[in-house]
Amino acid sequence: EKYLTRVMTRLTTAGAIFLAVISVLPVILGALSGLPQSAQIGGTSLLIVIGVALDTMKQIESQLIKRHYKGFINK
């Protein structure tokens, strides 16, 4: 139980730090580049776009595998 708690704490901490960096990074880059506020992409939008892209890639890969699957019985 202690081991699982320790592992979950580490994973949660690492994930929280990663998400914080991802959400703050666009603001910092926007300030450094001098782009207007309307041209900047927010951290939440970036996470949504990446999530949708990864899910789409998984679905395409699944469809390709499904198309070439011959099954266990070859007739």
From TrEMBL:
One of its GO terms (cellular component) is membrane. InterPro entries: SecY/SEC61-alpha (IPR002208), SecY_dom_sf (IPR023201). The chain crosses the membrane at residues 12-32, 38-57. GO terms for biological process: protein transport. It comes from the Bacteria. Keywords: Membrane, Transmembrane, Transmembrane helix. The keyword S-adenosyl-L-methionine does not apply. Gene3D superfamilies: SecY subunit domain. This is Preprotein translocase subunit SecY. It comes from Paenibacillus xylanivorans.
